[in-house]
Amino acid sequence: MKQWLIRKLIAFMGQFYVWLDRKLEHPKGKILELEIDEDLDNMSRYDLCCHIEEMFGLNRDSFWRLESTQKIRYCAQTARNLRANQKKSRKKKSS
């Protein structure tokens, strides 16, 4: 019951956050010294989620509906997997 209530509150707060976020003008350009491509810079929160879904072959709105921590965890694991694949490619080239 406690977890159910927490999830419902987070869902409500998430909806409210998205509503507020639409009204906020986000700064454009670098994020943590990473250059952001113009097309990504101009996408809404929802559009960015749709882009992730398209890039990784996910069902429509599946990424969008994840809780924030799940989104971060998914992206962190994807980044780790991409790095691991890069290291494997470098090892094969040097062999």
Assembly of the depicted chains: single chain
Taking Cα atoms only, what radius of gyration do you get, to the nearest Å? 17 Å
Distance between the termini: 56 Å
Structural class: mainly alpha
Give the H and E element order: HHHH
Large-scale geometry: extended
- Count of domain modules: 1
What low-confidence regions span 5 or more consecutive residues with pLDDT below 50? none
Q: What is the beta-strand fraction?
A: under 5%
- The percent range for helix content is 55-70%
Average pLDDT across residues? 88
Output the number of helix runs. Answer: 4
* Number of E-type strands: 0
Describe the overall structure:
The protein has 95 residues and is mostly helical. It has one domain (27-94). The chain contains four helices and no strands. It has helices at 2-23, 38-41, 45-55, 68-94. It is extended.
Set down the secondary structure blueprint.
Layout: H1 2-23, H2 38-41, H3 45-55, H4 68-94
Quickly list its features.
extended, 95 residues, mainly alpha, single chain, 0% strand
